[in-house]
Amino acid sequence: MSTGGIVGGIVAAVVVIIILILICKSMYVVHQAESIVIERFGKFKRVLDSGLHFIAPFADSPRSFQWRRTAISETGNIIDQTATHYRIDKRESIFNFLPQEAYTKDTVLLDVNALMYYRIVDVAKAVYEVDDLQGALSNTAQTQIKEVFGNMTFNEALQSQERINDYLVREFSRLFLSWGIEVMRMELQDLKPKHTISEGMKKQMIAERQRRGEFIKSEGKKMGMKIKAEGSRMVSVNLGLAEQESTRKRSEGDATSRIEIAHAEATALQLLSDALAPDKMSQSQYQISLKFLDIFKSVPNSSGQKVLYIGYRLDDVMGSISGLGDYFGLRPAKFKPPKRKTPVYQDDTQTDLPLHLKKDDDFEDLN
């Protein structure tokens, strides 16, 4: 092989290598959700989005970008990695704010750790608007978090984490938008007091729970006594009403029974009067006759000396008794009652005089 052929081959190889280098320097394939900042002689030229792009070799060059990437390991731990690369990821990423101390309104010192979910919407601003984007985000977040917790008590902070997240999203979006960062959401990772404060708060919490327990017990006893008193009152009221109703019912029953008895007695007397009417005998005569018959029945049963007291108006009594024979069918038809001397009073006005002032004409006749 001649010398000229060797030289020609070397030159051709060098040309091919140069062409390949130029092609590599001028051609960039940008993946989806990525961007590359191109500078020409150190001045911003343009931003390459996804696709195939060609630039002027040696004149144009990509701008490297230093960024801290946060990832979650397989064990669930959060890992921070600092990388320098010219390809900028525009997908949603996580920014881990390092734990920082913040005082609440009631002077409780807290350790606060938060996660920010963001994405870069303007690559040029993210690269050129701020020198240290990571430090700027951390310092701004620290200021906002201290301001938020400084305006609320510890109990309010524990109960308002969702409200705190929404507030931080609004504030960070307003502040970081000028740096090309869009904040998607915020999450408070840790919110715990210091150890000494935590011990004091535990004791306070235990005391508060004991106080609430005693209060609930006392309220329960109070309510129980109130319910018992109300029940006793209702029982007394119901017993009183029942006794009143019972008394009323008994009174109504007694009145009804008396009315029925009176009706029965009236009916019996009316029947007796109807039965005695044919014999021209009054009810009083009939009752007196029955009493005398009872007296006469009891005389044979008694022993010893017998004394029988009979009223001095024997004719009235005998007249009542004498009529019973015909009523009961005990007197023979031919029997005639003996004639008795009817006592004659000289003065009818003596009928109303006392017994010891009346004349004893009847007894004189008997003698």
UniProtKB/TrEMBL annotation:
This is Band 7 domain-containing protein. The keyword Membrane applies. Residues 25-205 form the Band domain. It comes from Anaeramoeba ignava. It comes from the Eukaryota. Residues 335-367 are annotated as: Disordered. Keywords: Membrane, Transmembrane, Transmembrane helix. SMART domains: PHB. GO terms for biological process: mitochondrion organization. GO terms for cellular component: mitochondrion; plasma membrane; side of membrane. PANTHER family: STOMATIN-LIKE PROTEIN 2, MITOCHONDRIAL. Belongs to the band 7/mec-2 family. InterPro entries: Band7/mec-2_domain, Band_7, Band_7/SPFH_dom_sf. The chain crosses the membrane at residues 6-24.
